[in-house]
Amino acid sequence: MQFTTKDVNGRSVAVGDMVLVLDISPDPELEEDRLEMFMDLIGARCAIERIDADGTGWVAVWWNGDAGTQLILVGLAPRQMERLAD
To answer: What domain range includes position 12?
Structure first.
């Protein structure tokens, strides 16, 4: 089943839509360098990869750093994303 969700403005968001990341809720136990990496996502433009039944929209971001290339998945609540124009 394909789910949809809403953005901060109440607009429909589907898999493949581009969103602006407005905020994230990182794990408070993240190491400082990883926390910085997550916080750098605020303001990023990302495609929605999947949407859970609870309305969480997931984005994936590839990072190149000292530890090599890493894939980061971040779940966004509707208040944390804004759908960009098509």
So the answer is: 5-83
